[in-house]
Amino acid sequence: MRIVFMGTPSFAVPSLRALVEAGYEIAAVVSQPDRPKGRKKVLTPPPVKEAALELGLPVLQPERMRNEEAIAELATYKPDLIVTAAYGQILPKGVLELPPHGCINVHGSLLPKYRGGAPIQRSIINGEAETGVTIMYMAEGLDTGDMISSVALPIEHDDTAGTMFEKLSIAGAKLLLDTLPPLLRGELKAVPQDESLATYAPNLTREDERIDWNKAALSIYNQVRGLSPMAGAFTMLNGEVFKVWGCQPLDREGSSQPGTIVSASAEGIIVQTGQGQLLLTTIQPAGKRMMQVSDWIQGAREIVGARFDGEEQA
Question: Is the pLDDT of residue 303 over 50?
Answer without folding.
Answer: yes
